[in-house]
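Q: What structure does this chain adopt?
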Amino acid sequence: MKTLSRRMRAAVETTRARRRLAREIAAYQTPAERHELDLILGRHTAEQIAEIDAILRG
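A:
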C-alpha cells in the first residue's frame, strides 16, 4: 500500500512539474523571447529537451 501511495504522489508531482514547466515556457511570448528560447534549446541534445519539445508542439 505504501508503494502505491508513493507512486501516486510521484505521479502528482510529475504532473505539477510539467505544468510549471509549461507555464515557464509560455512566458516566452515575443519573437525575441522565442528566439532566445530556441538558442537555449539549441545547446542541448534532442533527448535533453524532449519534454520541452513535446510541450512546445502542444
